[in-house]
Amino acid sequence: MYVDFEYYRGVYGGSSLTEQSFPAAVREAEAYIRYLTHVNGDIFAESAQADAIKRAVCATAEAYHGAVLEQEQGGGVRSESKDGLSVSFVVARREGETLEEYARRHMYQAARMRLLPTGWLNRKVGCVHGHKCGGGDCL
């Protein structure tokens, strides 16, 4: 794992993941960040921006864990009424959105905020005919 629990608690200041839930959440976060940035190389081999990358992993792991936890706690229930007792839950999931879609949306928001300034989310590709335009950005 790129981030350990001590970093998560001490440096990042995280508190929503327990030592038991941390490994699974971080594995999902790292896999998702690898998916987002694979076009630009191996993000986890980067050392100059290591702290920003570690913070992105921590935030993304928390977003994943929060989505899973909401589902486990019945977050899909919008309202319920029985014998005069009415219960409603406020949920962040959109109507018809699967748990995976919801988790990915929140993971993307967490990762984007921390990785966009680093350039790792840039998907811009230079032109493929540098012999004609000198490698500039042409259309």
Strand order of the largest sheet: 1-2
Shape annotation: globular
Strand content: 5-15%
Number of helices: 5
Number of domains: 1
Unreliable spans: none
Quickly list its features.
139 residues, mainly alpha, two-stranded antiparallel ribbon, 5 helices, 2 strands
Structure explained in plain terms:
With 139 residues, this protein is mainly α. The protein has one domain (5-133). The protein contains five helices and two strands, in the order αααββαα. The protein has helices at 5-12, 22-37, 50-72, 99-115, 130-133, and strands at residues 79-82, 85-88. It has a two-stranded antiparallel ribbon. A hairpin with a 2-residue loop joins strand 1 and strand 2 (85-88). Helix 2 packs across helix 3. The longest helix is centred in the middle third of the chain and has 23 residues, at 50-72. The radius of gyration is 20 Å and the shape is globular. The termini are far apart. The model has no long low-confidence stretch (mean pLDDT 81).
Short summary of the structure?
The protein is mainly α and 139 residues long. Helix content is 49%, strand content 6%. It has helices at residues 5-12, 22-37, 50-72, 99-115, 130-133; strands at residues 79-82, 85-88.
Task: Give the SSE map.
Layout: H1 5-12, H2 22-37, H3 50-72, E1 79-82, E2 85-88, H4 99-115, H5 130-133
Antiparallel strand pairs: 1-2
